[in-house]
What we know:
This protein is an alpha+beta fold. It has 2 domains: 10-175, Jelly Rolls (Sandwich); 183-301, Homeodomain-like (Arc Repressor Mutant, subunit A, Orthogonal Bundle). The protein is built from 11 helices and 11 strands. The chain is globular, with a radius of gyration of 19 Å.
Amino acid sequence: xxxxxxxxxxxxxxxxxxxxxxxxxxxxxxxxxxxxxxxxxxxxxxxxxxxxxxxxxxxxxxxxxxxxxxxxxxxxxxxxxxxxxxxxxxxxxxxxxxxxxxxxxxxxxxxxxxxxxxxxxxxxxxxxxxxxxxxxxxxxxxxxxxxxxxxxxxxxxxxxxxxxxxxxxxxxxxxxxxxxxxxxxxxxxxxxxxxxxxxxxxxxxxxxxxxxxxxxxxxxxxxxxxxxxxxxxxxxxxxxxxxxxxxxxxxxxxxxxxxxxxxxxxxxxxxxxxxxxxxxxxxxxxxxxxxxxxxxxxxxxxxxxxxxx
Length: 309
């Protein structure tokens, strides 16, 4: 039995603790804090048990025990385990969260930490580790969740060092380049307003005029800055994310194809089938029947931009 449908991404609010620089915890799946969401903190994430699918921005992949990643600020993400009805994966997730302001402050005071800059930058598109790096990082992540005070912080910096010194072949940037941070303030405003609007209305009616109004821009101005930052038009972005969401639903639920279409914002089956085929290279019905190893890789339905190695 696949995991139940989850709502479009929500903004997760993580209250700071005045006596802790980082937040470290473990939690079960299913859990109230699980779900497709985004928050302004960096999140280092370890899966300790179960198999399933995960989404980071417009990337959909699979996970198994030992899956280690770091998600940058405001990057929507989720991990959904394939579990029988009523089963709970106890302590499935080990999570470490910290703010950009805090880590930048640490870097200002401790120049040696500059070596983690590339990891922080790449995490804005989701960074997944493999091989010996993931194996070693899993142990350190658990050390962070099991300790307190100065000992916990020392394990945390050991973890960042491990990430920073990992071989290039053991780290993969997964989401498309549009999820990075545009340097132009107008482009940044257009992307932030546009993406927030899309994510909040993924299953409903989405209009360029509304997105432009939320960015306090005219439609032509919004369209220009949005495309300059993302490399694609606003309408194409809506389609990409809706099809990515549909693929996730096909992977993680038993909903009928028509229901998946509606949950992804498509109310015309012919249009849904046509758009899915164009993006993924196969129809929704055929896609669902494929084994995981046979399914088209995420690049097929990404924005046509490949992560730089």
